[in-house]
Amino acid sequence: MSHHDHPSHVHHHFENEVQQFDSDKMGMWLFLVTEIMIFAGLFCVYVLYRTHNPEIFHYGHQFLDKNLGALNTLILLSSSLTMAWGVRAAQLSQKKTLLTMLALTMLCAFGFLYIKYIEYGSKIHHGTLYGNRYVWQSEDHGTEHGSPEGELHSLADAAQDANAVRDAALAAGTDTSASSMSVPTSQFAPAPEGPQSFEVKTPEQLKAEKEEQKHNFPQPAKAHLFFSIYFIMTGLHGIHVVIGIICIFTIFVLSARGAYNSTYYTPVDMVGLYWHLVDLIWIYLFPLLYLVD
Amino acid sequence: MSNKEHHHEPGHPTVGHVSSLPQLFTVFGALVVLTIITVALSGKLPGAGGMLVAMGIATVKALLVALYFMHLRYDRPFNGYIFLASILFVACFFGFTSLDTATYRRDILPYENDKLGEAGGVEEMYKEPRESYQKSHNNAGNLHTTGEEAETAPDGEAAAEGH
């Protein structure tokens, strides 16, 4: 271990490239552990809130499209494959393959963000947001009632319509005349038609309707908690995806200049490890948020 | 572990492990299959079983990623120990913060009974809708009080109709 055969990419304070590589990698793993700890805090919040308020999670997850979530999972898994392939290409000095794989990985990452953008956009549109931005159904449920189209014409909607009708009927006592039912002023759409319209309904009809929707739980109090947790967890993960894209782009440029080959490819390996961790965290986020049942 | 084997081969790195392409594709295929299984199973298993199975599958997937994509299987064992230590600390973190969970159990009993189709479920909370509506707006302990009512006055009707 003398110093005269020191390759240029080995820093002077390392004995040799093996020691340098092992140190780099151990440092990277220590960093990844801190990342795991950051997300562990959020997962812990998830576990506690879910244990104490299962109805909020059961209700909230209906607003997420599990097909989009599954698609994003497959996209991230593919990007992990291309990243691992890219690391292999760097190790074998296959510059063209390396550049292709890094480009594909970035493409997948942008695809992931695009789908997230669609999902966030629909939540912004429907008002299913975090904290006090949650306006899906206003606090005074009965006086304001949105009827957004799209994503969600399912359980939650039907249950809420029933709630509004029921509250209105109760407010009016047994007299369910239309004049006393000024309740559902829609913000987003014209007054609903058909069986969901707010025509006169007898208490018997209401009861039958309620029976039908026995397992379509009405909106629980504090339903916004689910979306607060959803946005903070997927948001932090999304930030990691963005940082990942920046890192991959950096090594893409450096690779194009021929910075990496079989004698020195450490940055490619490190970015790969980071990217796999982003994938690994999503592997848990997906079932926890999208597949609550 | 394979550092020395490839040491003199040109084009091969002096450090690190080179994954074979068939292995990478096999791992990727397994990850995709496990994802499909998770989605297919969601909502099909009763009670907490679904989430346990989903988390089990997620852990298998995480292990595949860590062992093969992240090379832990061929890496210096110390990196694996660092990773395992973090999981251990996360477990402690979750364990200690979950210690008082049972304290709040009665708050969620109506909901769970309802899911299982037993008496005293959420239906109970809506027996007097106007009342429960007011409670939910005036009283922070809404769920708690309705939970008590549900416990003391089980309803045979709800049990018979639940599935």
Commentary on this structure:
The complex is a heterodimer of chains A (293) and B (163). Chain A has helices at 17-52, 54-60, 66-91, 95-126, 155-171, 203-212, 224-256, 266-290. By secondary structure, chain A is an all-alpha fold. In chain A, helix 3 packs antiparallel against helix 4 and helix 7 packs antiparallel against helix 8 (266-290). Chain A is elongated and about 90 Å long. Chain B has a domain at 103-161. In chain B, 65% of the residues lie in helices and 0% in strands. Chain B contains eight helices and no strands. In chain B, helix 1 packs antiparallel against helix 2 and helix 4 crosses helix 7. The radius of gyration of chain B is 26 Å and the shape is elongated. The termini of chain B are far apart. The model of chain B is unreliable at 1-8, 128-133 and 139-163 (pLDDT under 50). At the A-B interface, helix 1, helix 2, helix 3, helix 5 and helix 8 of A face helix 1, helix 2, helix 3, helix 4 and helix 6 of B.
Write a brief caption for the model.
With 293 residues, chain A is mainly α.
Shape of chain B: elongated
Are there runs of chain B of 5+ residues with pLDDT below 50, and where? 1-8, 128-133, 139-163
Strand content of chain B: under 5%
Tally of helical runs of chain A = 8
Helix content of chain A: 55-70%
- Based on CA atoms alone, the radius of gyration of chain B comes out at 26 Å
Ends of chain A: how far apart? 59 Å
The level 1 CATH classification of the largest domain in chain A is Mainly Alpha
Task: Report the average pLDDT across residues of chain B.
Answer: 74
How would you sum up the major sheet of chain A? none
- What is the overall number of helices of chain B? 8
Q: Indicate how many domains the architecture of chain A comprises.
A: 2
Main beta sheet of chain B, described?
none
Helix content of chain B: 55-70%
Counting helices, strands and paired strands, the structural category of chain A is: mainly alpha
Measure the end-to-end span of chain B: 57 Å
The most extensive interface between chains reads: A-B, 69 and 71 residues
Q: Structural class, from secondary structure content of chain B?
A: mainly alpha
- As residue ranges, the low-confidence spans of chain A are 138-156, 174-195
By CATH, the superfamily of the largest domain in chain A comes out as: Cytochrome c oxidase, subunit III, four-helix bundle
